[in-house]
Design a protein that fits this description.
Strand order of the largest sheet: 3-2-1-4-5
Strand content: 15-25%
Number of domains: 2
Structural class: alpha+beta
Largest sheet: 5 strands, antiparallel
Shape: elongated
Number of strands: 8
Oligomer: single chain
Order of helices and strands: EEEHEEHHHHEEHEHH
Helix content: 25-40%
Number of helices: 8
Length: about 240
C-alpha cells in the first residue's frame, strides 16, 4: 500500500529511541498517523513541528497497519507562529480540534480551512474570527451543527441575538427576553454578512464561549475529555496582544 498527499502536521509523539509517530491532517486521506523513522534527529525535529505542512508519502504492507511516513517540507510556518503567544495558542487549539476527527476519514473542506487559518494565525485582523468560525464548523462536521438561520421560537430572521443551549438554534431578542439569563449570546459576525473582518474583542469572546459550551457538552465531555487549555489560553493571549 502506498499513497501521496499533502498534509498539515497536528501532533508528534515519541516512538522508541529515534522515531516518532506523526499525526497529520491530509487533504484526501483525512487525519492519518504514521511512523517517521529517525524523526527525533535534530534535522527532522525542526520539520516535524505542529503547524508545518509537507508533501507526505505513506507506505504499509496492509492498509490497517500504522505504516511509514516520509515527508518533504512545503511550508515551515511553525517557527514563525511560536514567536507569538497568541498565534501559538491558536495553533494548539487548531490542532486539538483536528485531532477530534476520526482517523482516515476525508474532510477536504475542513483541511483547506485549517491550512488557511494556519497561514494567518499571526494576522490578528482575521485569525480570531476565523478560528471562532472554525470551531463551529468542527461542531457541524462532527454532527452537532448549530442553526442561526431563524428564531427557534417564532421563525423570524431578524434580531437574532441568543442561542438556545438546549437546541443549538438561534433565538430573537423579543422571544428570548424572558429567558435571557438561560440563553447564550450570539455574536452578530457569526450569522450576518459584514464588511468588517475584525469583530470587537467582546464579540470574539462571546463566540468562543458559545462554541466552548457545545464542544464541552457534545464532543469533549462524552469522550471523557476536558476542553483544551488552548481554548481559554488563546483568548487570554489575544486580549494581551490586542
Amino acid at each position: 500500500m502506498e499513497w501521496h498527499d499533502e498534509g498539515l502536521i497536528i501532533g508528534v509523539r515519541r516512538y522508541g529511541e529515534t522515531s516518532v509517530i506523526l499525526d497529520a491532517m491530509t487533504l484526501e486521506h483525512g487525519r492519518h498517523l504514521g511512523l517517521v523513522k529517525g524523526g527525533r534527529s535534530r534535522r527532522m525535529q525542526a520539520m516535524l513541528q505542529p503547524g508545518n505542512s509537507g508533501s507526505l508519502t505513506w507506505r504499509a504492507r496492509l492498509d490497517e497497519h500504522l505504516g511509514l511516513y516520509s515527508i518533504e517540507a512545503t511550508d515551515l510556518r511553525a517557527a514563525r507562529l511560536m514567536a507569538d503567544a497568541a498565534a501559538l495558542q491558536g495553533l494548539n487549539l487548531l490542532s486539538a480540534l483536528l485531532r477530534l476527527l476520526a482517523e482516515r476519514e476525508p474532510h477536504a473542506a475542513i483541511y483547506r480551512a485549517a491550512v488557511l487559518i494556519a497561514d494567518h494565525l499571526d494576522d490578528f485582523d482575521v485569525a480570531p474570527a476565523a478560528l471562532a468560525r472554525f470551531e463551529l464548523a468542527m461542531l457541524a462536521e462532527l454532527g452537532f451543527g448549530l442553526d442561526f438561520s431563524r428564531c427557534a421560537a417564532t421563525g423570524v430572521r431578524e434580531n437574532l441575538i441568543y442561542v438556545s443551549p438546549k437546541s443549538g438554534r438561534a433565538v430573537s431578542a423579543a422571544a428570548g427576553e424572558p429567558y435571557r439569563e438561560r440563553l447564550l449570546l450570539l455574536p452578530a459576525f457569526l450569522h450576518r454578512e459584514t464588511t468588517d473582518p475584525k469583530p470587537p474583542i467582546d464579540e470574539i469572546a462571546s463566540a468562543f464561549s458559545l462554541a466552548a459550551f457545545f464542544l464541552a457538552r457534545d464532543v469533549f465531555g462524552p469522550r471523557g475529555l476536558e476542553l483544551p487549555e488552548a481554548q481559554t489560553g488563546y483568548l487570554a493571549a489575544l486580549r494581551k496582544r490586542l
